[in-house]
Amino acid sequence: MSTHISYAEQHQLIEKLEIFKILGRDKHGHNILRIIGKFFPARIITVDALKSYLEEKIYPRLETKPFSVLYVHTGVQRSENFPGISALRSVYDSIPIKVKENLQALYFLHPGLQARLFLATFGRFLFSGGLYGKLRYISRIDYLWDHVRRNEVEIPEFVHDHDEDLEYRPMMDYGLESDHPRVYGAPAVDSPVSMYSMRCIS
Question: What are the residue boundaries of the CRAL-TRIO domain, all occurrences included (predicted)?
């Protein structure tokens, strides 16, 4: 879908939603780039605007020393906040070599069955440079603390809510039971996504 807002406005939106944030460290002392997939407004942000934002705001801070990525997949849906496979490949190909070399681990929190199957099938072909080998699936937040310093990384409330649901409904992990629509049909009232949506729809 084409966008009607400028690069500068798209950059401001990415910044406001805090989709990408460098905060905290893992158990090896590496800085963490936290990515919240649910917050990404895929219908509004173009691939070129995303790449230019990363080039200006994120990559320069990751070129000097090793780091890890915490990708929070909770609540990601293809039609709303998933940019698409070709977009992901384009973004990955544009990452500077030094940044790729500094990446130590990619912690993938709450991977659904579809994500696991896709990465198991195509991950090695799509992502070169050993990224697939650095991938670590984290099915529960409690397991995340085995790798990441608990008090240094902020996890949104909706992620905790989903984690709690998984404890009581484990079949959701395997795609045998869908997410509860009451909980995941819309963002929480105080989330940056809903605040932006309400302003822009009017």
Answer: 13-164
Find residue 108's DSSP bridge partners: 71, 137
Identify which of 75, 36, 70, 81 has the alpha carbon closest to the alpha carbon of residue 138. 70
| CA atoms of 140 and 143, how far apart (whole Å) | 5
- Rounded to 10 deg, the angle between the 113-126 and 85-93 helix axes is 40
Name residue, tokens 């984290």: 138
pTM of the model: 0.79
Query: H or E stretch including 101?
Result: helix 97-102
Spell out the domains of the chain, with CATH numbers in brackets: 7-174 (3.40.525.10)
Give the pLDDT band (50/70/90) at residue 71. Answer: very high
Phi and psi, residue 126, nearest 5°: -80, -40
- Residues near 43 by beta carbon (within 8 Å), at least 6 away in sequence: 1, 80
Task: Summarize pLDDT for 4-62 with one digit per residue, the tens.
Answer: 789 999 999 999 999 999 999 999 999 999 999 999 999 999 999 999 999 999 999 99
Confidence of residue 172 (pLDDT cuts 50, 70, 90): low
- Give the closest residue to 113 by CA, choosing from 170, 153, 173: 173
Mean pLDDT across 79-86: 83
CA distance 199 to 169: 35
| Integer CA distances (angstroms), 14 to 37, 57, 85, 147, in order | 12, 11, 20, 27
Count of residues making up the chain: 202
